[in-house]
Design goal:
Bound molecules: zinc ion
Helix content: 25-40%
EC number: 6.5.1.2
Low-confidence stretches: none
GO molecular function: DNA binding; DNA ligase (NAD+) activity; metal ion binding
Number of strands: 21
Catalytic activity: NAD(+) + (deoxyribonucleotide)n-3'-hydroxyl + 5'-phospho-(deoxyribonucleotide)m = (deoxyribonucleotide)n+m + AMP + beta-nicotinamide D-nucleotide
Domain BRCT: 464-541
CATH architecture of the largest domain: 2-Layer Sandwich
Mean pLDDT: 87
Shape: elongated
Distance between the termini: 71 Å
Protein name: DNA ligase
CATH topology of the largest domain: D-amino Acid Aminotransferase, Chain A, domain 1
Number of domains: 4
CATH superfamily of the largest domain: DNA ligase/mRNA capping enzyme
CATH class of the largest domain: Alpha Beta
């Protein structure tokens, strides 16, 4: 699956190279082709041992890029073929030479004495070209089994292919078969079945990669493609969205080519209902809200905030960790990989992963993909305290999270609370209350919770605390050793009691620390029960 070109050699020297569209000679791209190592500048005629060589020799073949070399470019180009074509048509040979392009010859147009197509491949090699020899088959069933064998090997080949070409091997017979339209009858492309499916786009999300590249991802109605279920497909970039004219709600064709992330390749506009929604590509980063940037000549918007990608990764890693959602098998390395592949960028994305999203990835097989998806689904139910801790709010540790859960009972109540009310909670001082309040004020954080609930995360309410101090009034006096006075008051409230500042007949307990003041005398006079710090803490457990 490369880019077809034709090469002309005069007296053995490469003189002209041109693009070939539909069998016609196209643009002259000689200078760029000269930068490709596997295109010989001089033919090795000497090895052929032929005395009467023609002045001019024409060789055809394809310029392509190997899959591993394409990795570096995949953010900007849809596939290696587009990149190879774009590079060859570059006006600046320096750009072309910087790209690791290769050439495979498949046809020798000039008569150098070959009687068979297979001999062409032989001669091309002797001339100094790289060429895939293929296989000479003696009957059609052999052709089919060769095609099957290559289809099986397809993923492991260094380059992308979309099928096998079948040539009539006898050149004389090839000529006699003639031409139908523009294509010779003696040659046929035997394509592999495309890995395609039709489904609906439920939403479009943008994800920020490690380099800050912002990629739009179509969230699909789960669909089976080539034997696995997928739930998302890349839309590459803003230009691609414009080119496809894709809208949310559209019915589309998705394709899973080889081991790359599935892509939306076509919109079936005739199936529109009129309720489809335009997708507006954001101008600010969905992770850190920084204004996105895009150089004019590029297609990809980027978040210029260097700490953005790293921060997001750290948060996702924390989110899946033992102390938070505790998802088995979703360690930092896997998180990195999923972020790199644009499969996750927000915590909610984790819960939408399907086996088919994971199987194409390195390190994943069907079994491990299934295990991870199961492990994720198992953790969808989470106790409120753990959920609060998982949000990663500054100054909110496990202990504080438990207290918040006990007091508020639901994430909704916590979201709506005031700074003043927060300060009632044990462990929560002014700074912590401020931090919690601020966290819940942020639209992005509200959406984070909303999205988690939307994908089916269930937050379990805390078990009721025994309100062991219900109805009891406490007065504190003197200094306490292991707990501050305000913390002690909070504990009393949390357990249903009332802290009071002055002793009266209504006082049930006086908690006396060291160096108690006049309150102790008054309590004694009124017959109020006096307890020490240790006794109090025992009651307030
Ligand atoms: Zn950002």
């Amino acid at each position: 699956d490369g880019f077809g070109i034709s090469l002309i050699y005069q007296d053995g020297i490469f003189v002209t190279g041109s693009t070939r569209g539909n069998g016609r000679i196209g643009e002259d791209v000689t200078q760029n082709l000269k930068t490709i190592e596997s295109i010989p500048l001089r033919l090795r005629f000497d090895l052929l041992g032929r005395s009467n060589l023609p002045d001019s020799v024409e060789v055809r073949g394809e310029v392509f890029m190997e899959k591993k070399d394409f990795e570096k470019f995949k953010e900007k180009y849809a596939n290696p073929r587009n990149l190879a074509a774009g590079s060859i048509r570059q006006l600046d040979p320096k750009v072309a030479s910087a790209r690791p392009l290769k050439f495979l010859a498949y046809d020798l147009v000039t008569d150098l004495g070959q009687k068979k197509h297979s001999q062409k491949h032989q001669i091309l090699k002797e001339l100094g070209f790289k060429s895939e020899a293929g296989k000479v088959c003696s009957k059609l069933s052999e052709v089919v089994s060769y095609w099957r064998a290559i289809a099986k090997k397809r993923e492991t080949l260094p380059y992308q292919i979309d099928g096998v070409v079948i040539n009539v091997n006898d050149n004389a017979f090839f000529q006699r078969l003639g031409v139908a339209g523009k294509s010779p009858r003696g040659v046929r492309a035997f394509k592999f079945s495309p890995k395609q499916a039709t489904t609906k786009i439920q939403d479009v999300k943008v994800q920020v990669g490690r380099t800050g590249a912002v990629t739009p991802i179509a969230i699909l109605q789960p669909v089976e493609v080539g034997g696995v279920t997928i739930s998302r497909a890349t839309l590459h970039n803003e230009d691609e969205i414009k080119r496809l004219q894709v809208k949310i709600g559209d019915t589309v064709i998705v394709e899973r080519a080889g081991d790359v992330i599935p892509a939306v390749t076509k919109v079936l506009k005739e199936l529109r209902s009129g309720r489809e929604k335009e997708f507006k590509f954001p101008r600010t980063c969905p992770v850190c809200s920084t204004n996105l940037q895009k150089p004019k000549e590029e297609a990809v918007w980027r978040c210029p905030n260097l700490s953005c990608g790293a921060r997001k990764r750290e948060f996702l890693q924390y989110f899946a960790s033992k102390k938070a959602f505790d998802i088995d098998g979703l360690g930092p390395k896997i998180i990195d990989q999923l972020v790199d592949e644009n499969l996750i960028s927000q915590p909610a994305d984790i819960f939408e992963l399907k086996e088919g999203d994971l199987i194409p990835l390195e390190r994943f097989a069907e079994k491990s993909a299934k295990n991870l998806v199961e492990a994720i689904q198992k953790r969808k139910k989470i106790p409120l305290a753990r959920f609060i801790y998982t949000l990663g709010i500054r100054h909110v540790g496990e202990e504080t999270a438990i207290n918040l859960a006990q007091y508020f009972g639901s994430i909704n109540n916590l979201e709506k609370t005031t700074k003043e009310e927060l300060e009632v909670i044990p462990d929560v001082g002014g700074k912590v209350a401020q931090s919690i309040h601020q966290w819940f004020q942020s639209k992005r954080n509200q959406k984070l919770i909303e999205d988690l609930l939307k994908v089916g995360v269930k937050i379990l309410p805390p078990e009721k605390v025994a309100r062991t101090l219900a109805g009891k009034t406490f007065v504190l006096t003197g200094s306490l050793e292991s707990i501050t006075r305000s913390e002690a008051q909070k504990k009393i409230r949390l357990l249903g009691g009332h802290p009071s500042s002055s002793v009266s007949k209504e006082t049930d307990y006086l908690v006396a620390g060291s160096e108690p003041g006049s309150k102790l005398d008054k309590a004694k006079k009124l017959g109020v029960k006096i307890i020490n710090e240790k006794e109090f803490l025992g009651m307030a457990k």
